[in-house]
Design a protein that fits this description.
7% of the residues are buried. The protein is mainly α and 517 residues long. It is 81% helix and 2% strand. A hairpin with a 2-residue loop joins strand 1 and strand 2. It has two domains: 242 residues, no CATH class; 182 residues, no CATH class. Strands 1-2 form a two-stranded antiparallel ribbon. Strands 3-4 form a two-stranded antiparallel sheet. It starts with a helix and ends with a helix.
């Protein structure tokens, strides 16, 4: 019961603080000795609780009334806006179509303003009638002038057929004018209905605003009375609370000692967690060393295969050397990036653990702070010291969060670089396979050309006598065939792949012609 009284009491004491002008002040948090004293007094006896309960009930009732007023008038305004939009979509009502406006009867303090609506409707009807009379007079004058002009034009004509034609033309013109005037009249009628609806809406809103104002004024008066009574009760409780302050301070010192013991326990836990983090870091280092050894072994195997496959021409050998240099450079960059990634991961894990630990400490401190908030508010000096410690902890947390974000960004950049290196390695492997395939094709071409040369030499020997050059060639001549010259269009792509255009073989078609000569 005492805890409930202490929780409900701070809501009643701030309501007593009002401006000297008489306007009700908004409820604020309890500050200082005057606001803290009534809460402790309420926890000591049933009499103080019985005084505090009616104040809380009155404030709740007043707030409930204010919410009801706001909900009713705000909801009514929104519903009326929706209804008006629906009515405008459907079309004007019967009274608006006939040019008559429905009088809206607002209510002020439960009384309907019927007389005002009747007077306004009468004035509107009178003005409409006067306007119509003036328009009728103007039309009569205009018609008289038009009739005289028409008679003059008819007198000028000689035959009745011409007169009929002139009358028909005039009739057609008048019909067109009549149609245009009817269209304009319909547009003006629509505008008139819209204006009448807007006027009715504004009247309704005005009446509702007057009602809300009257109710809010009555609420303000009740709040002022309630604030005065609460102020008097707060002064009395503050006087009683000053006597019981010493007991609360002693209890507060005991709680502070408990907090210090808990802080020491948390420090011991922190040391244990640090040792565990160091052990985990050692294990990670061992795993990284094993991974590096495996990569070195794989690199050695790749180099051995590269040495076995270096059987091309001089330019192909140069290209392979360039590829080796690029691979070594990428390997160095890869090792460097791996080391950076490992360090960033280790630092990130350490910072995450520190962050979780600090968050746990913060949660514990906040829980303790909420438990002893009522008692801490009564001693200003201890409150300020604890607040300074909290600010320091928040600054540390912000610094740690910044460092974690920095290490995360480094880690992500290193991972991206590793992915790029792997992709480049796969591309280089594909390029190497393509070069090997091209070398094999060139070897086959060379052998085919040598066989054709041998056949042609044999034919020449049969036709023209002893051979000038020995036609026989060994199979090893394919490996010792001359390197392709610049005319064979050896081109290097931007990706590092060499493309060799084979020379066009025209010897078989030219040699038989020479033999016949």
């Amino acid at each position: 019961m005492k805890d409930q009284e202490i929780k409900t009491c701070p809501t009643a004491v701030p309501a007593a603080s009002s401006d000297p002008s008489g306007s009700p002040a908004p409820p604020t948090a309890p500050e200082g000795r005057d606001t803290a004293a009534p809460c402790a007094a309420a926890s000591q006896g049933e009499g103080a609780a019985s005084h505090a309960a009616p104040g809380c009930d009155v404030s709740e009732e007043l707030s409930r009334q204010l919410e009801d007023i706001l909900n009713t008038y705000c909801v009514d305004a929104g519903q009326e806006g929706v209804a008006d939009s629906e009515e405008t979509d459907k079309g004007p009502p019967e009274a608006a179509r006939n040019g008559e406006s429905k009088p809206v009867v607002p209510e002020v303090n439960g009384v309907k303003e019927e007389l005002r609506g009747a007077v306004e409707t009468r004035t509107i009807n009178d003005t409409d009638k006067d306007h119509k009379r003036v328009q009728d007079k103007k039309k009569a004058k205009g018609l008289g002038k038009e009739i005289t002009l028409l008679m003059q034009t008819l007198n000028t004509l000689s035959t009745p057929e011409e007169k009929l034609a002139a009358l028909c033309k005039k009739y057609a013109e008048l019909l067109e004018e009549h149609r245009t005037s009817q269209k304009q009249m319909r547009i003006l009628q629509k505008k008139q209905t819209q204006l009448i609806q807007e006027k009715d809406q504004l009247r309704n809103e005005h009446s509702k605003a007057i009602l809300a104002r009257s109710k809010l004024e009555s609420l303000c008066r009740e709040l002022q009375r309630h604030n005065r009574t609460l102020k008097e009760e707060g002064v009395q409780r503050a006087r009683e609370e000053e006597e019981k302050r010493k007991e609360v301070t002693s209890h507060f010192q005991v709680t502070l000692n408990d907090i210090q013991t808990q802080m020491e326990q948390h420090n011991e836990r922190n040391t244990k967690l640090r040792q565990e983090n160091v052990e985990l870091a050692d294990r990670l280092k061992k795993l990284i060393e094993q991974y590096e050894l495996r990569e070195e072994h794989i690199d050695k195997v790749f180099k051995h295969k590269d040495l076995q496959q270096q059987l091309g021409d001089a330019k192909l050998q140069q290209a392979q050397e360039m590829l080796k240099e690029v691979e070594e450079r990428h390997q160095r960059e890869k090792d460097f990036l791996l080391k950076e990634a490992v360090e960033s991961q280790r630092m990130c894990e350490l910072m995450k653990q520190q962050e979780t630990h600090l968050k746990q400490q913060l949660a514990l401190y906040t829980e303790k702070f909420e438990e002893f908030q009522n008692t801490l508010s009564k001693s200003n000096e201890v409150f300020t010291t604890f607040k300074q410690e909290m600010e320091k902890m928040t600054k540390k947390i912000k610094k740690l969060e910044k460092e974690t974000t920095m290490y995360r960004s480094r880690w992500e950049s290193s991972n991206k670089a590793l992915l790029v290196m792997a992709e480049e390695k796969t591309l280089r492997d594909k390029e190497q396979e393509a070069l090997q395939a091209k070398i094999q094709k060139l070897e086959k071409l060379c052998r085919a050309l040598q066989t054709e040369r041998n056949d042609l030499n044999k034919k020449v020997q049969g036709l023209s006598g002893p051979p000038a050059v020995s036609p026989e060639t060994t199979p090893d001549d394919c490996m010792t065939c001359p390197a392709p010259t610049s005319s064979e269009n050896v081109e290097l792509n931007s990706s590092g792949v060499y493309e060799q255009n084979a020379p066009q073989v025209t010897a078989p078609s030219s040699l038989p012609a020479a033999a016949t000569e």
